[in-house]
Sequence to fold (471 residues):
Amino acid sequence: MMRHYSYSFIFMGILLGFALMGHSSVAGTEEPELPLGIDDKMEALEPELPDGLNLQMEGPPPKSDDPAFGLHSDLSGFWEVRAGIRTQNDAHEKDASLGETRLQLEIQKNARIFLFNIISDFIYDPVFDHHSIRLTEGQGFIDLREANVLLAPLEFMDIKLGRQILTWGTGDMLFLNDLFPKDWKSFFIGRDVEYLKAPSDALKVGVFTGIANLDVVYIPRFDPDRFIEGKRISYWNSSLGRRAGRNRKVKVIKPDDWFKDSELAIRLSRNVRGYELAAYGYYGFWKSPAGLDPLTSQAIFPDLSAYGASIRGKFFKGIGHLEFSYYLSRDDENGRNPFIKNSEFRNLIGYEQEAARDFTVGVQYYLEYMMDYHTYLHNLPQGSKKADEDRHVITLRLTKLLINQNLKLSFFAYYSPSDQDAYLRPLIHYKINDHWSAETGGNIFWGEEDYTFFGQFEKNSNLYAGLRYGF
Fold:
């Protein structure tokens, strides 16, 4: 156990040492823009995310002395239809995995002292037959993605207040220090990958100096993941000892008090000779249920603190990244409570390279190490499935662009040698013209056991197709 402490804190010490170096190696004082997908290259301190997750290109609102500046509004958006079907029979879910039409409208308004942005989706979805609106869960015929105002009170500061999409870290569809909400249901049923990121109701403050950049995010009421609860996707129910779905939806006790059940996330970052360095901190809750109330048999979100660091930059002929995070499960620091998830170390190393013209290859290795494992085994209830002390995951991304880059062939795979399970995401996307695009893909799950992370979703394997008109 001590070796895991040593390696992680040595790595963090190196990163913080770089961050305290002088001004000579600072590339600039402006806030770095978020990166585009794995096929796009631009300087960033954010993760190199797949297409669709590069959701924000933040910066201060236009200055009043800009001749192009004025009071005006811009309207854009898209309309799309998507349909999907399961490749296996699942007694706990409908045969259709996806069937919806969606209209997204985005309005931006520039005023003299702020920029206002609102993005909302309007959805008709016969597969999921509950249309009452629950914005936190993304349920109903309206999904409010963003509604915020951006201010720049000082030259070196901007402030964004309201509903917004937040992301940071270095992983490609693996998240360590990014503890902002995810929508795993959308990810697994074949919606556009941009919907993996769920919105947060937050205050974000960015301060940009010649020494380092500081981002502080305060979320006054806990925003959990849109996690798997059985409404669309069946899952392993440990209480029943089998898979369950619509017949046994997960009931949760959610921290829901304004300002009392709040979250705080901090990132300190800078660029040193072309290498992007960052240190992270988080104080809040496990984002998906990570515990059980034995009195009510309801799932809970235990208290969580996380501390981590990352480095990303040129390596060999491509781009490499390293990231780690220590998850402190504050409600069970010694691992004695069998109903609450133990503390963990999470480590990630990745590399991507353009192997040939318009052909990109990316690989990652991810490790979860459970703290106090022997205590966990000693207190595990009889008959419960035990988790491994080390969970290993390897990912592979292949992306090929054809027909003047209008056709994209993509393949992303997760494989866990410790769990003996896998998750495959093939995708074909074709840009028909400036407005129309079409895509088809799949979500294929496999596992030796029904209770491992990807293995539990094997009956949810699906194929889907979509058509979109953008304006």
Observations:
- Confidence is low (pLDDT under 50) at residues 1-70.
- The radius of gyration is 22 Å.
